[in-house]
Amino acid sequence: MIEELTNKNFRSVIGQPNRSVLVKYYHPKCAACRPAGQAFRDSAQAFSGRRDQLAFCAMDVSANACPAGIYVPGTPYIQLYIRGTRGGARIWASSTRTRLIASSRLSSV
């Protein structure tokens, strides 16, 4: 399951002390977001048994302004926020149009 983020719930979701959060920023009319979205959904499904450790979330940048301190240079854009960090410190970001990072990289999160 992919949780939809909004301006109202963004900080509370990424600031959770017990799990990391992978956020996909997208625009509904973005052509590159469609294949990236499918890869993101596939990854969320593959990690569905670890939802207590890793959350998959998405934020529509056409409907929500990016929260203060968050810079999204383009879509699709993916950021990983590590559990237990103040404000959900970003450790990985990409606007690449290739596949989502390999599952083996996420297994240590």
UniProtKB/TrEMBL annotation:
<protein>
    <submittedName>
        <fullName>Thioredoxin domain-containing protein</fullName>
    </submittedName>
</protein>
<dbReference type="InterPro" id="IPR013766">
    <property type="entry name" value="Thioredoxin_domain"/>
</dbReference>
<dbReference type="Pfam" id="PF00085">
    <property type="entry name" value="Thioredoxin"/>
</dbReference>
<dbReference type="InterPro" id="IPR036249">
    <property type="entry name" value="Thioredoxin-like_sf"/>
</dbReference>
<feature type="domain" description="Thioredoxin">
    <location>
        <begin position="3"/>
        <end position="86"/>
    </location>
</feature>
